[in-house]
């Protein structure tokens, strides 16, 4: 069974700092990995999808890297803003045709 | 348009009631999902429909009954729920269930907040 760990569980940073969110997973036989954002009580918003053949994916201030062989992905958010405050979820998709979710990185950006 | 819609936004029901949650997408996706999410926890997969056929049932109690009337609609029928079933119910869709295709990505709706009294 795929186990996903996200570190740190929670972090607070001042506005303007770069954010680094880490995700590790135990089964490297994945097809892709998605990063999601979730605001309290809301649904999940897909931020980035990285295919297993890719090393990184970028969208605006977001950059996600994937090292499939070592079971790691990192989400970088440049120049953080208060609007980036949310929980970020990492979810690899594997051969069992399921997303496996981590418990999330809860981020607070302080103005 | 990458939108998945869910109705209602909030639902309060008694343990003897029957209610339904509805999910809709118009992206031409052929896979649709129901998840349950408790507070401070990640989403848990309940059901997967692929081409309108149930392909995954994660041993969900029979008081939850999914239905996929067509490729755009997904319902979750609720009957005789327990207070511990109170949660955020999320619907998602993807082009299909095969993760190795280059365009696979799951899109989630805003959820239905269910409270069972």
Describe the fold and architecture:
The complex is a heterodimer of chains A (111) and B (117). Chain A has 111 residues and is an all-beta fold. Helices cover 0% and strands 58% of the residues of chain A. Chain A is built from no helices and 10 strands. Chain A has strands spanning 4-7, 10-14, 19-25, 30-38, 44-51, 56-59, 62-67, 72-77, 86-94, 105-110. The model of chain A has no long low-confidence stretch (mean pLDDT 94). Chain B is globular and about 35 Å long. At the A-B interface, strand 4, strand 5 and strand 9 of A face strand 9 and strand 10 of B.
What is the topological layout?
The complex is a heterodimer of chains A (111) and B (117).
Chain A: E1 4-7, E2 10-14, E3 19-25, E4 30-38, E5 44-51, E6 56-59, E7 62-67, E8 72-77, E9 86-94, E10 105-110
Parallel strand pairs in A: 2-10
Antiparallel strand pairs in A: 1-3, 3-8, 4-5, 4-9, 6-7, 7-8, 9-10
Chain B: E1 4-7, E2 10-13, E3 18-25, E4 31-37, E5 44-50, E6 53-57, E7 64-70, E8 73-79, E9 87-94, E10 107-108, E11 112-116
Give the gist of this structure.
With 111 residues, chain A is mainly β.
Helicity of chain A, as a percent range: under 10%
Q: How many distinct beta strands of chain B?
A: 11
Q: Runs of chain B with pLDDT <50, length 5+? A: none
Radius of gyration of chain A: 13 Å
Largest sheet of chain A: 5 strands, antiparallel
Low-confidence stretches of chain A: none
How many DSSP H or I helices of chain B? 0
Structural class of chain A: mainly beta
What are the secondary-structure elements of chain B, in order, as H or E? EEEEEEEEEEE
- Strands of the widest sheet of chain A, in order across it, are 1-3-8-7-6
Question: Which terms summarize this structure?
Answer:
heterodimer, A: 111 residues, mainly beta, 5-stranded antiparallel beta sheet, 5-stranded mixed beta sheet, 10 strands, 58% strand, B: 117 residues, 7-stranded mixed beta sheet, 4-stranded antiparallel beta sheet, 11 strands, 0% helix, 55% strand
